[in-house]
């Protein structure tokens, strides 16, 4: 019997009745989780969101919504919710576990291990977490790289699913999107609003392909920059520039639903990056229009 | 607000086009100290700037690069500039759209150094 089956319809009815009788109660947490386990994700999300409107500072509520979003395939928003949960409660085992899994999916094994170990330390009796820690350690040591335990059909303590990308969101290979531009294959990255790489590439100083990992993080920057500019009455954001000790970065939005990143050596001034971004944005818009 | 921090922030707000400056806790996104922030929601600036900087830090880390030492968010009607400071702090300026970015950055860095 799958563990999803352990939640009966009667359980759902009882929890629903309890919530109806007292909408301010915390029963939305077990109800949302029960619905999630039964794969009634739309209903589960509504329950979680309604609960969060009453308890926006409750880490468990953000953890619940993150699990539901993870099951729905919205990993970026799931990451955000677990991130919020950890800001509210740095010792939230479920949030550490969830973010650890997402880092694993993104290929960031050191960070995955860091969070999974934190989850394990906080909840040492959870077998699924211990197994995940072990597998990530093995992967880091050059082992098989077997993914952490699949959640479906396993204990609820285990990690959430890594659902396939939603239809239509697959990365489109476009080796010549930025043809003729400086850094066309390394240092220029175009992504959509969900953090999926559309084109270009980025290599770390160690020679690793990091475009997809960076793209996933930048989707959040896209939303935060828009939110910040709007809420502070600054109008629409136009660019974000960042200087680090070893690189300069420049972000802009060629269209309302895309984001462009340029990364150059720290010796290249930001002003020059802005000019290069203009040209790359024009190329990106042409490509987006051509590909529909 | 201590005199040292106040003086540091006033050096930033003296730059033409700077509407206000503040010190923010990077982790929590809370206001530690602020100067000349009339008409600006300091709490919102703190939370939103800390969020953007934290996400950028994750992105640069993912790219194998070091953490941002200066962040400049430009918008149609203004800008936010931030520099990290010791003690997990950020020194932040909210400015008009057209400013001397180099000068503001310099004053932000001086302010950050004074927080050491």
How would you sum up this structure, described in words?
The complex is a heterodimer of chains A (292) and B (116). Chain A is α+β, with helices and mostly antiparallel strands and 292 residues long. Chain A is built from ten helices and five strands. Chain A has helices spanning 9-21, 28-37, 41-54, 59-72, 75-88, 93-106, 109-122, 127-140, 211-231, 270-291; strands at residues 188-192, 197-201, 237-243, 247-252, 258-265. In chain A, strands 2-1-5-4-3 form a five-stranded antiparallel sheet, sandwiched between helices. In chain A, β3 (237-243) and β4 form a beta hairpin. With 116 residues, chain B is of the alpha+beta class. Helix content of chain B is 40%, strand content 30%. In chain B, strands 2-1-5-4-3 form a five-stranded antiparallel sheet, with helices on both faces. In chain B, a hairpin with a 2-residue loop joins β3 and β4 (78-85). Chain B is globular, with a radius of gyration of 13 Å. The mean pLDDT of chain B is 90. Chains A and B meet through α9 and β3 of A and α2, β3 and β4 of B.
Please write out the topology:
The complex is a heterodimer of chains A (292) and B (116).
Chain A: H1 9-21, H2 28-37, H3 41-54, H4 59-72, H5 75-88, H6 93-106, H7 109-122, H8 127-140, E1 188-192, E2 197-201, H9 211-231, E3 237-243, E4 247-252, E5 258-265, H10 270-291
Helix pairs in contact in A: 1-2, 2-3, 2-4, 3-4, 4-5, 5-6, 6-7, 7-8
Chain B: H1 3-13, E1 18-25, E2 30-35, H2 42-62, E3 70-75, E4 78-85, E5 89-95, H3 101-114
Antiparallel strand pairs in B: 1-2, 1-5, 3-4, 4-5
Percent helix among the residues of chain B? 25-40%
Our measurement of the CA-to-CA distance between the termini of chain A, rounded to an integer number of angstroms, reads 46 Å
Cross-sheet strand order for the largest sheet of chain B: 2-1-5-4-3
Uncertain runs of chain A: 1-5, 149-175
Q: What is the oligomeric state here?
A: heterodimer
How many helical elements of chain A?
10
Encode the helix/strand succession of chain A as letters: HHHHHHHHEEHEEEH
Distance N terminus to C terminus of chain B? 16 Å
The percentage of residues in β strands of chain A lies in 5-15%
Care to count the β-strands of chain A?
A: 5
């Amino acid at each position: 019997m799958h563990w999803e089956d352990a939640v009966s319809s009667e359980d759902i009815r009882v929890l629903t009745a309890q919530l109806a009788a007292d909408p301010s109660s915390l029963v939305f947490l077990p109800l949302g989780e029960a619905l999630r386990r039964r794969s009634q994700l739309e209903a589960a999300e509504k329950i979680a969101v309604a609960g969060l409107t009453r308890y926006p500072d409750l880490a468990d509520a953000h953890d619940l919504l993150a699990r539901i979003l993870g099951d729905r395939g919205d990993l970026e928003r799931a990451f955000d919710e677990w991130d919020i949960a950890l800001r509210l409660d740095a010792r939230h085992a479920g949030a550490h576990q969830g973010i650890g899994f997402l880092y694993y999916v993104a290929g960031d094994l050191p960070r995955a291990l860091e969070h999974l170990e934190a989850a394990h330390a906080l909840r040492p009796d959870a077998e699924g977490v211990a197994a995940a820690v072990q597998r990530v350690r093995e992967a880091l040591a050059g082992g098989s790289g077997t993914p952490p335990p699949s959640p479906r059909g396993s204990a609820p303590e285990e990690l959430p699913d890594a659902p396939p990308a939603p239809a239509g969101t697959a990365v489109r290979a476009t080796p010549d999107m930025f043809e003729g531009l400086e850094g066309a294959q390394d240092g220029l990255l175009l992504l959509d609003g969900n953090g999926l790489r559309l084109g270009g590439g980025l290599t770390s100083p160690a020679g690793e392909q990091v475009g997809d990992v960076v793209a996933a993080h930048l989707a959040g920057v896209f939303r935060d920059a828009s939110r910040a500019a709007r809420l502070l009455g600054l109008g629409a954001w136009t660019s974000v520039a960042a200087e680090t000790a070893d690189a300069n970065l420049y972000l802009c939005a060629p269209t309302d639903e895309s984001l462009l990143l340029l990364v150059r050596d720290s010796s290249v001034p930001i002003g020059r990056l802005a000019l290069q971004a203009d040209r790359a944005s024009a190329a990106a818009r042409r490509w987006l229009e051509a590909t529909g | 607000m201590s005199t040292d921090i106040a003086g540091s922030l006033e050096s930033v707000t003296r730059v033409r086009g700077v509407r206000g400056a503040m010190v923010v806790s990077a982790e929590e996104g809370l206001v530690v100290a602020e100067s000349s922030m009339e008409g600006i929601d300091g709490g919102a600036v703190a939370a939103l700037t800390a969020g953007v900087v934290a996400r950028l830090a994750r992105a640069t880390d993912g790219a194998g690069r070091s953490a941002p030492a200066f962040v400049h968010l430009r918008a149609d009607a203004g800008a936010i500039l931030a520099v990290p400071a010791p003690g997990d702090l950020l020194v932040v300026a909210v400015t008009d759209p057209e400013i001397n970015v180099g000068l503001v950055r310099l004053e932000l860095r001086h302010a950050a150094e004074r927080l050491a």
